[in-house]
Amino acid sequence: MSRGNWSEQDFAGLPSLSVAAHELKSPITLMRQLALALQGGTLSVAETQEYSARLVLMADKSLTLARDLSQVANLQPALFPLEPTNPLAICRSLHSSVSPMAKLYGREVIWPKNRTVELVSANGRLLRSVVSNFIDNALKYSQDDLPIRVGVTRRRGVVRIGVRDFGPRITQREYRRLTDEMERLKTVKTRPESSGLGVYIAAQFARAMGARIGLIRHRDGVTFYIDLAASGQLSLL
């Protein structure tokens, strides 16, 4: 099992327009295909409902990406103040929005079972986006018959939220190339065909909160995580 940590210097600057365009191309293409199918008028009632729901999901995903990119360009402390935040509540708030997308991908997401957890110093909106981006990445790559696991753990004053996928195995050579790109070339590709934009956004949001994201390589997938400073207060759900 290998680990990689990335500092704010690894993610300096904004992503290129080509990277953003690459990430938006797929959902826009799918939306066009769904819209054309709906326009054709040959779908059954059930198919029409399914296609309409998928169209809304993909549109919401594109709008979220556009919103996140605009926030990355304007991460002023006054706009995103830090406050004691419950990591479990963040995960719980994601459940309703993640479930439809998980169903679309045919995936199962297992959420933390903790009953109590220390609060962290964070901005709820940014932290929610970080975890959401990790889950979105996992939905794309995890195997159909294996779940995606979201966990919250604490160690030495740090609270970690991790998202574990069981996607295609990353070889040691691929992993070294990935971390080399992170450290030397300042890119953030997480899989060979991925632009890595979601992880880039997560890194920028983490930096704004004084937190850090990282990666653990497993034999059967990866875990992306964010480490946040514990506030010392215990929250009861």
The parts where pLDDT drops under 50 for at least 5 residues are 8-14, 182-193
The helix/strand series, from N terminus to C terminus, equals EHHEHEEHEEHHEE
- What is the percent of helical residues? 40-55%
* Shape designation: globular
Summarize the structure.
With 237 residues, the chain is of the alpha+beta class.
Can you give a write-up of this model?
This protein has 6 helices and 8 strands, in the order E-H-H-E-H-E-E-H-E-E-H-H-E-E. Strands 1, 2, 3, 4, 5, 6, 7 and 8 form an 8-stranded mixed sheet that branches. The protein is globular.
Describe the secondary structure blueprint for this structure.
Blueprint: E1 2-5, H1 17-40, H2 45-72, E2 83-85, H3 87-105, E3 109-110, E4 116-122, H4 124-141, E5 148-155, E6 158-164, H5 172-185, H6 197-208, E7 212-218, E8 221-236
Parallel strand pairs: 3-5
Antiparallel strand pairs: 1-7, 2-4, 4-8, 5-6, 6-8, 7-8
Keywords, separated by commas or semicolons:
237 residues; alpha+beta; 8-stranded mixed β-sheet; 6 helices; globular
